[in-house]
Specification:
alpha/beta; three-stranded parallel sheet
């Protein structure tokens, strides 16, 4: 399944990759601090991975891959507040249903382990954000 996705993702990313490579080849002054790239709505992170391997690491210090579906860290999950406030007058049955719906086990998420691998020349930092 992933084999079929790779050519599709490369095709969708080709324009951005080309523009980023031109930018780094033509416009980056060596005395400037390295750039940080933010890949919004990154999904699985193909664009971030392509850029990590194609851009000069001395001119780009990191890539932030941002997506709403990245899994939450344990610390973030511990801070998730129940959607039903204490002042709400719903009965116990509705509260239990809301808690079940909001539980960490039922959230759809993407793993980001493949992005944090040391195989990438430019580090990729995944972030969950809306």
């Amino acid at each position: 399944r992933m084999r079929r996705a790779l050519p599709k993702e490369l095709n969708e990313s080709a324009f951005i990759i080309d523009e980023m490579m031109k930018f780094f080849d033509n416009n980056v002054v060596d005395s400037r601090p390295p750039y940080t790239i933010v890949d919004m709505c990154s999904g699985v992170g193909f664009l971030s991975m392509f850029l990590s391997h194609l851009l000069p690491a001395e001119k780009c210090s990191r890539i932030w891959a941002i997506d709403t579906l990245f899994e939450l860290s344990d610390k973030a999950l511990a801070g998730v507040v129940d959607a039903v406030s204490a002042g709400n007058k719903q009965d116990d049955n509705n509260i239990a249903k809301e808690e079940e719906k909001n539980s960490a086990a039922n959230r759809i998420h993407l793993t980001s382990d493949h992005l944090t691998s040391t195989i990438h020349p430019i580090p990729i930092k995944p972030r969950k954000a809306n």
